[in-house]
Amino acid sequence: MNLKRRQFLSLSSLSAIGVGFVGCVARSSSNSTNMAASKIVTASASLTNDLLLRFVSVSDTGTGERSQYAVAKAMDVYHSQNPYDLVVLAGDNVYNNGEMEKISEVFERPYAPLLKQGVKFQACLGNHDIRTANGDLQVKYPHFNMNGRYYTFRRDKVQFFGLDTNYNADWKNQLVWLEQELKRSDAPWKVVFGHHPVYSSGLYGSNPTFIKTFSPLFAKYGVQLYINGHEHNYERTRSLNGTTYLISGGGADTRPVRRSDWTAYSASKLSFAAYDVYADRIEVSGIGTDNRVFDKGVIQLKSV
Q1: Is 251 domain-assigned?
Q2: Which residue of 134, 212, 273, 300 is 20 to 30 Å from 281, comparing CA positions?
Q3: pLDDT for 129-149, tens place per residue?
Q4: Residues 226, 227, 228, CA angle at the centre, nearest 5°?
């Protein structure tokens, strides 16, 4: 993928509110030892077996290449065995430049089986998406179901908050909005999603400014899960001050990923993530194009 947009990490336009992207290019290696770390968080004592909601997430999808179709096929296979009607689409929906004339090739065809069955995609904007018309056409595209560049919606006892994490986002108003909506929410489960990572062991690394901006806010208002892409890999953190950070960026391409001391599991795999929400926990699965679960973890309602 064209990575020239890494230049936006300077972010002079955001200096007034102190939000910037600090990328850290790190050496990557395979991490076959990650399974042991994953096992630490997979054991859970169920208080109820009543499933409230099942959804999946995927990002960095919009290439129209065979690898994207392979992940889309795995999502459809999973749907046939474990029905769901919601996909969190965490940005870079149309490569390379957000050209909406490609939407059939990079979205409607790959996910046609899911769309025909009424599965709803809830998208946010990635850095590639804003290269054409600043992403405005994607915001208006009906199948992305975006009620603005940042927005919220609720499913049962889960409230979702979609963000615009790009360098030119309306950060001043968006952060005020986010805190107001989190404070107002009475949902027991709160899930925030955006394109860019807060914590990452991939190419770009963690974003120190996002850690300072989002982590205290998530802890204050009980956000249990943050979902993102941008890194073309899968990574799930352990609970950090009550929040699990999950990257599901292997929707069409992969890059190497390493481990950090807060990593529960990471893998360089074409994949998507699936979430089973119960009253007391969310069960997370990482699923590859071979239709096998390669990671399982649990997010507790009151995670510490």
Answers
A1: yes
A2: 212
A3: 999 999 999 999 999 999 999
A4: 125
Strand positions, DSSP E, the chain: 53-58, 86-89, 120-123, 151-155, 158-162, 189-193, 225-228, 234-237, 244-248, 263-267, 271-277, 281-288, 293-300
**What per-residue confidence (pLDDT) applies to 158?**
98
Tell me: the pLDDT tens digits for 157-181? 999 999 999 999 999 999 999 999 9
Count up the domains in the chain and report the number. Answer: 1
**pLDDT tens digits for 235-244?**
999 999 999 9
Q: Beta strand pairing status for 86-89 and 53-58?
A: parallel
- Decide if 288 is inside a domain: yes
CA distance 12 to 74: 41
CA distances from 175 to 73, 154, 157, 187, 230 (A): 36, 19, 23, 19, 21
Query: What pLDDT does residue 9 have?
Result: 41
Q: What is the CATH number of the domain that holds 83?
A: 3.60.21.10
**pTM recorded for the entire structure:** 0.85
pLDDT on residue 29: 36
30 assigned to some structural domain: no
CB atoms within 10 A of CB 43: 7
Range of the domain at 170: 42-300
Mean of the per-residue pLDDT values of the chain: 88
Is 193 part of a structural domain of the chain?
A: yes
Q: Which amino acid, 144?
A: F
